[in-house]
Design a protein that fits this description.
- By secondary structure, this protein is of the alpha/beta class.
- It has one domain: Spore Coat Polysaccharide Biosynthesis Protein SpsA, Chain A (Alpha-Beta Complex).
- It is built from 10 helices and 7 strands.
- α3 links the parallel β2 and β3.
- The longest helix has 18 residues.
- Belongs to the glycosyltransferase 2 family.
């Protein structure tokens, strides 16, 4: 049986955890040949997030250094799955469709999938200012890195664990989302993007649109022009990013997952 790790970074999300952890389709994944571990990264919460995650059966990784990227790096260092799937602890990402997403990865022989939240059907789930910011950053990212990823800021990815060891991802904060995508593309990994449903957030919004947006913008240029990046970026013309388009985020939920 293959093994899947679901990694969920969490900062003061005690009220959302039951719904988020409960949405992972463990039984459906098992039927498709996947043993699932749920890893919650407690990013120095003060509301008992870690204790609640343990009560709900998740494995908890403690990361006292706050930051979105810090949380993910701590979580990825501890996972045991052949494949990793990510999602925030605020109920926005459809972890309940893990089978369909893993199926896309395996069936299309991909190494890394990122998920696009910016379809019109999701427009009510995100603040207009956040939507505009995401689209602007995504456009700049496409120009700088030469890839066609439509949603560079999405926090839901599915990837083979061995790919992570090949990436040079340094961001400790929200910039991690765009950096891991651009790194996956530049590394020559077989990449894809799928449309997903994006849901209204449960609880307090922690994103600071202007501050985080400016930090992300700076990181894009820093990443693109790293001295030690030049040899790999020179190969961009020979690489192809395979975009997998689906009409519905659940289109293949009933398809068998290869094992």
């Amino acid at each position: 049986m293959n093994r899947l790790s679901v990694v969920i970074p969490a900062l003061n999300e005690v009220d959302n955890l039951e719904a988020v952890i409960g949405s992972v389709p463990v039984a459906e994944l098992a039927a498709a040949g996947w043993e699932t571990e749920i890893v919650v990264v407690d990013n120095a919460s003060t509301d008992g997030t870690g204790d609640e995650a343990r009560r709900l059966g998740a494995r908890v990784v403690e990361q006292p250094n706050r930051g979105y990227g810090n949380a993910y790096m701590a979580g990825f260092a501890e996972v045991s799955g052949d494949v990793v799937i990510t999602g925030d602890a605020d109920q926005t990402y459809p972890l309940d469709h893990a089978v369909a997403l893993v199926n896309h990865l395996i069936a299309n022989n991909l190494d890394f999938i990122t998920c696009n939240r910016l379809g019109r059907e999701n427009r009510d789930a995100m603040k207009p200012s956040h939507t505009v910011g995401n689209k602007v950053l995504s456009a700049i990212s496409r120009v700088l890195f030469g890839n066609p990823i439509q949603d560079s800021q999405s926090g839901m990815w599915v990837f083979r664990r061995d790919v992570w060891a090949t990436l040079d991802v340094r961001s400790s904060g929200m910039q991690f989302s765009q950096e891991i995508k651009n790194e996956a593309y530049a590394s020559g990994a077989r990449c894809g993007e799928v449309a997903i449903e994006y849901r209204p957030r449960g609880g307090e919004v922690k994103l600071n649109a202007w501050k985080d947006g400016l930090r992300n913008l700076w990181q894009l240029f820093e990443h693109r022009f790293r001295v030690n990046r030049a040899p790999r970026l020179a190969l961009e013309a020979a690489r192809t990013l395979e975009i997998i388009e689906i009409d519905s985020w659940a289109a293949s939920a009933a398809s068998p997952v290869a094992s």
